[in-house]
Design brief:
Number of helices: 7
Helix content: 25-40%
CATH architecture of the largest domain: Sandwich
Structural class: alpha+beta
Number of strands: 13
Number of domains: 2
Radius of gyration: 24 Å
CATH topology of the largest domain: Immunoglobulin-like
Distance between the termini: 85 Å
Order of helices and strands: HEEEEEEEHHHEHEEEEEHH
């Protein structure tokens, strides 16, 4: 236990005694508007490394960029066949599951940091998601499903680093985003340890008629239901009139 505590303390305080290197970064945009024809967006992340000394030559510098969407609790159900029918036989609650998660780095994350560093800084999607019982298939199932839907992404060589000083990458945001603050982190790493951590946010919000309908559905469910019935009735009447005219 003492050994684990010492390791965690060393990983936390490592930036204090390692060579002073800091991130100076910016985004091409810090606000994304979801409209009726929104089909995704792309954010350019760029910056430089600020130093107080010469560039170290005895180790490689790596840059890791993560974008994390709003988090919430998720319940994963496992089905099994019982007496000829499929029923839910087990459930597991997963906490702090990001609705969107993207990781880009200068090379594979596993080659940059050690597992203890990943556990401390929560860089990979697996470390982001909290579970009541660690290691169950529910976590892997959630990551697999969201990866297939384009919500969890990884680019092992997605960050371009020039002369150990300038870096840039682009993060593609899919069309099926949820509203909220998307936290963007930029981490510098050497020898498996994190040197610096820079954070900012991208605000994603519905605008126009989408925003109005969203607010109506959440703040006045009765009015939203009546409006939906009215529009369905008008659409049905319009379709019947068109078919009646065609049959003439």
């Amino acid at each position: 236990m003492m050994r684990g505590f010492v390791l965690a303390l060393a990983l936390t305080l490592a930036p204090l005694w390692l060579a002073a290197e800091e991130v100076v970064a910016d985004l091409s945009q810090n606000r994304v508007s979801i409209t009726a024809n929104f089909d995704g967006s792309e954010i350019l992340i760029f910056g430089a490394i600020k130093r107080e000394a010469a560039i170290p030559t005895d180790s490689d510098l790596d840059v890791i960029v993560t974008v994390t969407g709003p988090k919430k609790m998720e319940t994963i159900l496992r089905k099994a066949r019982r007496f000829g029918i499929w029923v839910n036989v087990e459930r597991e609650r997963l906490g702090h599951a990001p609705s969107f998660y993207s990781v880009a780095a200068t090379r594979p994350v596993e080659d940059i940091i050690i597992p203890a560093t990943d556990a401390l800084w929560k860089i990979t999607a697996d470390e982001q998601i909290l579970s009541e019982r660690r290691g169950l298939p529910a976590r892997e199932a959630l990551i697999r499903i969201r990866t297939a839907n384009g919500l969890y992404r990884r680019a092992n060589a997605g960050v371009e680093l020039n002369q150990n000083t300038l870096f840039n990458t682009s993060i593609a945001l899919p069309a099926n985003l949820v509203e909220g603050a998307y936290v963007t982190r930029i981490l510098l790493a050497r020898n498996g340890l994190i040197l610096d951590d820079y954070s900012t946010e991208i605000q994603v919000q519905k605008v126009g008629i989408e925003r109005w309908l969203y607010n109506l559905a959440h703040n006045n469910a009765l009015m939203y239901g009546l409006l939906s019935l009215l529009l369905a009735g008008i659409a049905g009447w319009g379709a019947s009139e068109i078919f009646r005219l065609i049959r003439r």
